[in-house]
Please model this.
Amino acid sequence: MARNVSSQRKIVNTVVAWTIGILIFFPILWTFLTSFKTEAQAIASPPSLLFFDWTFENYFEVQARSDYFKHFMNSVAISFGSTLLGLIIAIPAAWAMAFAPTPKTKDVLMWMLSTKMMPPVGVLVPMYLLFRNTGLLDTRIGLVMILTLINLPIIVWMLYTYFKEIPGEILEAARMDGASLAKEIIYVLTPMAVPGIASTLLLNIILAWNEAFWTLNLTASKAAPLTAFIASYSSPEGLFYAKLSAASTMAIAPILILGWFSQKQLVRGLTFGAVK
Amino acid sequence: MATLHTRSAARAMMAPSVVLLLAWMVVPLAMTIYFSFLRYNLLMPGMEEWVGFDNYRYFLTDPAFFQAIFNTLAIVLGVLLITVLGGIGLALLLDQPMFGQGIVRILVIAPFLIMPTVAALVWKNMFMNPVNGLFAYLARSVGLPPFDFLNNAPLLSIILIVAWQWLPFATLILLTALQSLDEEQKEAAQMDGAGAWSRFTYLTLPHLSRAITVVILIHTIFLLSVFAEILVTTNGGPGTQSTNLTFLVYAQALLQFDVGGASAGGIIAVILANIVAFFLMRMIGKTLEA
Model:
């Protein structure tokens, strides 16, 4: 009897949870489906969910009309570039804070966190002028620099929480065996740190890919990543729902897949290790 | 263990991060402060002059400024209300035994991974558009007149769009925290005759308090600076009805080329964020230490 009640509850839970899940996901599903419609079908009333003439035309048209691939590559270059640069700068810092902590380490970490609280508009004007005067406006390099800086605190924090979990005794043992600092890092620490570094990399690529303040304000066309490219659809001419959907689907698909693989790291990274 | 040698090595390893972040904090902010005391318009080069607090006076007497402050706080509080309450509810639901839990979690987390410009444009055009949007179709099919969301309720529409993006993150954090709650404690409470409601208020909610504070902290940081969603949907309008502080400063700087005025606005935004952060850190300091 008891088992019967609980399996009944399980079915109710399933139905309710799936309904809410599908409702929350629906805008994405709808975008995906619309990307395969013709423009006329995209605004047809009543709308059709699945039974329309599927076409890939929108995808080709988005590429032909606005050189989609260029913006895609800008997104790739900017998100990977800023993430790798950030890791190169942050790994030594996080290593030092995790394995050679001083009484000030916690303060340094909290100070780094506090830099994230500065609203970007506080420095929009000088950054825009600096970029304009140094020719960095609308360049990939400029955006890589900015995104590295804004995500650096998150990278340091996330690496720090991962490195903290590596037992210090192992390092001491290596040191006793006469390993130098360089050897210690290459042969002992690196293999144990790789999973944490990989998670940090993944999360940071997602954050950089979706960043939509600096990318919108500091690019025009040449270096515009997908965030800025999609924004150009905000004042379109003529029918455009299907093309907007196709462009959107291509812009979100890679990150959606990456994100699904890294749900756990998402929580950990964005809560600065406070929730695991 | 920490010899003098390792300590200086550690300092050298931290130096690049610390120096870069320090420069990033100090240099542009100092420039913003300096510009905020100048009359400086990009359309009138060479006319810069020191005007003291004029830019601040202009900003603080502009009705658009008060609207922007109100809108900024309304977006933060509105979205927090939806995401925290909705997130607790969803996390509790997803923590129950069910079929296909992993898939539901994947569906729920998805909006968080969508770039803000895509999310806002999809909602604006395919759902909220009063002619071709899905909501208009649904309204018509039950005999109601379609509602023009972005013209008649611009702020509410933006709150809904932003809440849709951030609800998953709140849910995910709260669910992660919930799953670390000891099963035995729940069972013990159940055996002692605690009902579902008292188990929630005396056991689950206190356990979640740390996660809830973290959600509030992180959401507030990001929500104070909502920008892309406004830019691609309402452009701050109609009028200034959906202009928040971030958008106001952007418009002043990059649409009106008023460097001085925009800088003053930027400094006010920094001060506002600091006030909010001060209270948040106090609140969070208490919870995180406990």
Summary: The mean pLDDT of chain A is 86. The longest helix of chain A spans residues 2-34.
